[in-house]
Amino acid sequence: MLETIRKSIVDGKDYTYVRNHDKEVDAMEEKLAGLYGASHVLLTSSGMAAISTFFDSFPIWDEEKRIDWNPPFTILMDRNTYYETRELVEKFTSHKVIYLDFKKMMEEEHPKDWEKIFSQVMEVVPIQIVYLDYPDFFGTMVDLRKVAVMAHQKGAILMVDNSILSIGGADPLTMGADIVVESYTKYVMGHGDCMAGGIIFGHSEGAHLAYKQVKRRIGRAGRYIPPETLYLIDRGLETLDIRLGRHTQSAKKIRDALVGAGHTVLWAGKGGSLILPGKKQDFCKDLEVFRKLPTFGTTYSTWGYVRSPDYYTVGDYVRLFVGLEPVENLLEDLSRAKII
Asked: Considering Cα of 325, then 326, then 327, then 328, what sign does the dihedral take?
């Protein structure tokens, strides 16, 4: 695959770019589908383009009338889903959103009978889509298999954002998700130098029909990924496991140091994203190796501050993303900034 792209770009042989029938894009989508065990994958220009394209693509055009799946949908969404996704659906689509705090329900209020509570919520109004991040920004990993079973029992599909850990760290499709979206801008490409996204389709009838409709939408709206970007996805896939392992190992050491210094740290146990709830922007003002950038999944370490009462349930927080620099340099940076 990589050699095909190089050959096509370098010498121009056997290369034809057509907006909605590009053979290099098709080949990469097939490769990714094989990695996920998916029926299909569709590539877009960014992770948010993947999400917005999906929700822009309905009603479903089903000539055989096998499924009545027309908007506006009622979407049951986790309260801590990425706030830009929530804002997109609320303000720029006709869909109705009902929020449920999965973490609070499962871990704090109803740990023993959350399935009953979840079922009751699903019965209030017909739900077409259950949507959540796995894990969410704060490291919460719900029991996705049970959520999938219960969503399907109520006739809904389960849609999951897999960007926090990527295909290298989590595989929601194998746990029952029907649709998965992922920002390849993050871990898959891994260098913070280009953007891409993917929509991954399972094997259910709803997923199959959605694939046909979303593929039409991508072509008609011109949201295809530039073929030159395919090289960067393929480059990233070659080293994803190695990089994710390094992110995880370094993050564990830094998490331990932060906890040892008395800080509360939320972490999924994989990847490099560490959340410190209750911290303000000044907490990171003296960091030098950690750069102030609102991104993660990159070779370099970053930090960001979110005033989140309107976005998430944890209130203000600082995120430290642990990159691939020597962990000793990162610990020294935190020590110099008097954080540990």
From this structure: negative
Q: Which two tokens mark 204?
A: 């259910």
Residues 169-181, mean pLDDT to the nearest whole number: 96
pTM exceeds cut of 0.85: yes
CA-derived radius of gyration, the chain: 21
Within 10 angstroms of residue 257's Cβ, the number of other Cβ atoms is 18
Residue 209 has pLDDT above 90, yes or no: no
pLDDT for the residue numbered 12: 55
What confidence tens digit (pLDDT) does each residue in 238-265 have?
999 999 999 999 999 999 999 999 999 9
Please provide the size of the chain in residues: 340
